[in-house]
Predict the 3D structure of the following.
Amino acid sequence: MSNIISQTEYRQTWQQINQNTHYPEALNTTDFINYCPQHLGRGYHRWVKLRGINLLIVDEEFDDDLYVESDDSQINQDYILEFGFNLSGSYSERNGTQSFFDWFEIELLEERQYFSIGAKQRRLKVDIHLDSQDLLKNFIFDNREKLPTTLINLVEGNSKIDFCETNIIAPEMYLPLEQIINCPFQGITKNLYLEGKCLELIALKLEQLAQHEKHRRKVIVLKKDDIERIHAAKVILIKNINNPPSLIELAHQVGLNDYKLKIGFHQVFGTTVFGYLHQHRMELSRQMLSEGQMSIKEVAHAVGYANHGCFAAAFRKRFGVNPKHYRIKS
């Protein structure tokens, strides 16, 4: 079973049962824990505010697959600058165990309208969000020759092209991750300890990026058979619009590894696997509305939305009008 909700609904669901709850052992107001709503599953999100860093520790397990789509709510910042470490579980097209580094402008976020969380699996992750670019500049200044040109241009303000990199969690990253999750200290000692571990992980991630840069392939060569399998994956998505498989499941069904499917799908169709699914849902719903034979609620359900309000928000974001208005004009 899958649940589809809007980003606003998802956020409000958590807020209803959490009022910035202090972490049980916290001695100040910079350490908060939000518990997972019981109708979704179990676990928590813990936020720790450090100097220039927002540390997030996620430990949760959902009962059903969850798909969260962005709506008209705005993110109160200009860009996202994040180092992430997925120790277990799946999140959109990222699965444990993976590390990643994302830097993208909010205004260029059109394709990132959707994220998914797999059910019946513990999702354990550590995210390091930077408040500004200044901290990253200090790391990169003496290593610019080793790092991707795209990243250097972002740091120096010469580009707004998104930078997203995903890799394994290197062996040396596991110890500081474990120390963050099981930090034994309190008060100012805790903050300094966690801050040091975050900086250590940032350094390790950038070193990994530098080591792999010369071997990085920006595109992959697709054989005719690969392209046919990627098209088969598209057909499977369309046939299972109400309950789409995960990226790993989809790759297994068409006989490709998940990396080749993810990169190859973008090369063939110009968008991500779940970006394509979202586009197809919207186009199909527009077609159904224009035919005038189904109510908005029925159309929403037909394309995989249990909540027609969430569907309306996604439709409005895609086409600029509410489903009702589009149906009247059609």
The mean pLDDT is 84. The chain is about 45% helix and 25% strand. The two ends are 33 Å apart (CA to CA).
